Amino acid sequence: MEGKTILELAVGDSAYVEKTISESDVYLYAGITGDLNPAHVNSVEAKKGIFKQRVAHGMLSAGLISAVLGTHLPGPGSIYLGQELKFTKPVYFGDTVRATATVTQVNTEKNICKLSTICTNQHGETVIEGVATIMPTKAKA
User: Fold this and answer.
1) DSSP bridge pairs for 113
2) What is the DSSP letter of 83?
3) pLDDT band at 138 (very low <50, low <70, confident <90, very high)
4) Does the pLDDT value for residue 61 go beyond 80?
5) Which of 35, 73, 91, 95 has the fewest other C-beta atoms within 10 Å?
6) pLDDT value, residue 1
């Protein structure tokens, strides 16, 4: 399975992945990263916070952006060079997050493209927005 090369990409190309964030996802992410912030793993403490309940780690949802870039657009073989992120709303346990990437710039000379990245919840509300910089897979021989 190979991803798209720079010559196969066009401004406006878009793809997405979608996942419902479970309690297990949050605890696995906390264990892997060591981020045991009570806002994510302690319902008693989280009730005292600004969201009044536990929320998923922002980077867990942002990881779905990596999934769409690495599996769909540009896809396998691409190199993730950078990402700007702005977290705009919390993601709660049970929310379904859709991560969408859309090509906004293609630089064939440098083999680099920029994609707008946005994550929305099941209500269509933006929870993360940003810009990814990607080096697509090399041209096929």
Assistant:
1) 106, 134
2) E
3) confident
4) yes
5) 35
6) 66
Check pLDDT > 80 for residue 25. Answer: yes
Q: Are strands 96-107 and 112-120 parallel, antiparallel or unpaired?
A: antiparallel
Amino acid letter at 52?
K
Q: What angle, rounded to 10 degrees, do the helices at 58-71 and 23-33 form?
A: 90
Residue 96, C-beta contacts closer than 8 angstroms, at least 6 positions apart = 18, 19, 20, 21, 121, 122
Q: Please, how many CA atoms are within 13 Å of residue 60, restricted to the half-sphere of its CB?
A: 28
For 84-130, the pLDDT digits (tens) are 999 999 999 999 999 999 999 999 999 999 999 999 999 999 999 99
Q: Is residue 20 a contact partner of residue 95, using CB atoms and an 8 Å limit?
A: yes
Interior CA angle at 59 toward 31 and 35, to 5°?
A: 30
Cα separation of 55 and 46, whole Å?
A: 8
